[in-house]
Amino acid sequence: MGGLRPAAAKALEAIAMNRLWQACVLALRNLLLYKLRSFLTALGLIFGVSSVVAMLAIAEGASLEAQRQIADLGATNIILRSRKPIDEPAAQRQNNESIVTNYGLTDKDFERIRATLPTVKAAAPLREFRRQARYLDRSREVRLVGVGPDYLTLTNQEIAEGRFFEDIDMARIANVAVLGAEIAEELFPFGDPVGKAVRVEETQYFRVIGVMRPKAASAGAGSSMSSEDFLRDVYVPITTDRARFGEVLFSAKQGDLKFERVRFSQITVTIDRMENVKRTAESIESLLQQFHPKKDYTVTVPLELLEKAEATKRIFNLVLGSIASISLLVGGIGIMNIMLATVTERTREIGIRRALGAKRRDIILQFLIETGVLSATGGLIGVSLGLLAPPIVSSFSGLPVVVQPYSPIVAFAIALSTGVAFGVYPARRAAMMDPVEALRCE
After folding, report:
1. Cβ atoms 119, 280 nearer than 8 A
2. pLDDT in tens, 76-107
3. What is the helix (H) or strand (E) element at residue 427, kind and residue range?
4. What is the band of 256 on the pLDDT scale with cuts at 50, 70, 90?
5. Helix (H, G, I), strand (E, B) or coil at 109
6. Do the beta carbons of residue 122 and residue 154 sit within 8 Å?
C-alpha cells in the first residue's frame, strides 16, 4: 500500500501537467485566431518594455561616464584652483596703462598646506596659460602647463612614448617638453616627435622627451581642464616654466594689454585616506580664507562630486523608469480591455465548458494563461527591441550605453505581472457567468 501512494501522486501530477499544457495550447490557439488584434494588444507592453530597457541603458551609460570622469580626478584628491577676481573698473585705467593683477594660489599656500595638515599625503602644483607651439611650418595653439614629476600619478595619466619629467630635469631647469596626444599628432603627423624640438612663441625651444596617452578629462568637474585641453597640452617642468616665461603673464585682447601674476593655477592635494577627504577640505578652505580675503580660489572635492553623481543616477533612473512604466500601465489597460471583449465574444463557449463540468477555477486559469502568453510574448519582443536600441543610439549620438543584466529581467517580469494582474478581472468575470444564461447567448 505504501508503494501505491507515490505512484498515485505521480499520476495526479502528470494529469495536472497535461491539463496545464492543454490549457496553454488552447490559449495560444485562441490568440492566433486573431493575430492582428493580439499583436496590437501587446504593442503597449512591447513599447513599455523596450523603453524601460533602452532608457535604463542610456541612463546607466551616461551616469557611469560621469562617475568615471570624476573618479579620474581621484577620490582621495582635493583640487584647488586659482580664480581671477572681478576686473577693476575701466575708469581706473588711463591712457591704456596696463594693470598687473595679482591673484590666486601662492608658494606660501602650498607650503602651509603641506606643513600644517597631517592628513596630506602629497601635493603637486601647476601653472597653465595659452601659447602658440610650432614645428617647421605647422603651428597650433596649445595649453602650456608647468608641472612637476608627480603630476602623472596624481592625474592618473600615462606616457605612450618616451618618458615624463624627473627631478634632474627640474633641478637643471631643462628645456624639455611632453606633448598631449592630439597636439603630437598635429605637429608631427609623419614621424616620431620624441627627440625633436618644438618652438613656443618666437624664442623658446623645447626638446620633446615624451608623448601622453590619450585621455578624456573631467570637464565640468570643477577643473578648467576640458577634454580638449588634456589632448592638446604641452607639459614643461614648472621650474623651466618660471625661468623662461617669468612671473608675470600677459595677454592682448581688443587692444587692451592685461598682465597677470599667478604663481600656481592649480594645486592637487592627495589625502592619506578617503574618510579624511571632506574634513581636510574644510581645513584647507579655512586655512586659505585667512590669507585670501577676495576668495580668489576654488576648492573642488571629487569625492563629493562622485557622491552627487551617484545620487543623481538614482533619481535619473527612477524618473526614466517611472516614465517608461506608464507605457506598461497603458499596455495592461489595453490587455484588460481586449480580454473583456473576448469574454463577451466567448460567452457561449464558456457556458458549454461549464455545462460539460469545467469549474470556475478552470475558466479563470484558461483566461489567465491566455493573458500570460500575450504578456510574455509582448515582453520578449520588447526586451529584444530594447537590447537593439542602445547600440543604435550610441552609434548615432556617441553617448556610452550600458545594459545592466537585471534591466531586461526586471522589465520582462514587470510586463508579465502587469498583464496577468490586468487579466484577473476579465477572468473572474468569465468564471462568474451563469452557465444557463451563457448557453442562451447566441
Report:
1. yes
2. 888 899 988 775 444 444 444 457 778 889 99
3. helix 406-431
4. low
5. helix
6. yes
